[in-house]
Amino acid sequence: MVLSETSVHPPLLRVHQLSKRFGDESVLSDVSFDLGASEIVGLIGPNGAGKTTLLECVAGLLPLDSGNITTRDGGPPRGVAMYIPDGVSPYPELFAADVLMFFGEAHGVANSEWERLIDRLNLLPVLGKRVAALSKGNLKRFLLALALLAPYPVLLIDEPFSGLDLEQMRAVSRLLREVPVTGRTLMLAIHELAHAEQACDRLLLINSGQLVGAGTLGELRESTQLPGGELEDVFLALTRADREEGFLARH
Fold it and tell me: Chain-wide mean pLDDT for the chain?
């Protein structure tokens, strides 16, 4: 099927026909897309669709079985992307304040900047806690602060809203919307479609390891002939069309 995707010239990162297998299981199959500067791209799909594996491949944590990932100058993407997994606890026995200060100093960030992030993410009450003792919501916001302190052009974040209450979600969403203004790009793996609609400029829809649609919500609505459709309706229409196309190709 033909995917609707916004062209980005030149792309900050280009993923071309990426495939990944674990043993006999195909987890990703011929996935291609571009990431441009100053945008928020949502990687959307159900649990088990291949979102986390794709982020790990883009981050260079997993070898590719086929395909390639290049930067705008055609070279390998070393030092371009930082990956924030869901639920990881870096330096678990250290205090949150010490880890934040270490990250800030390591990357030459002014004290005023990491203090601003602490305020925006409401992390002041947890600075005296060890990282291992942070609740899921506090840990998620702590990890986001670390990511924003690191000067990588691309931030790959797995489930940025998981574990957050409504107030925390709104604060994180507002902060993420400000990141592209600095010239950085966010790629967010999200399974809650309502969160994706609100947070992202462009969407990559993945199902069973295959990219079934790409573009803005308006472009995806147009491609599915659902002008007023919610993202859930669009996703279901695209996955249904993909299944039907696969069936016709086999018969």
Answer: 88
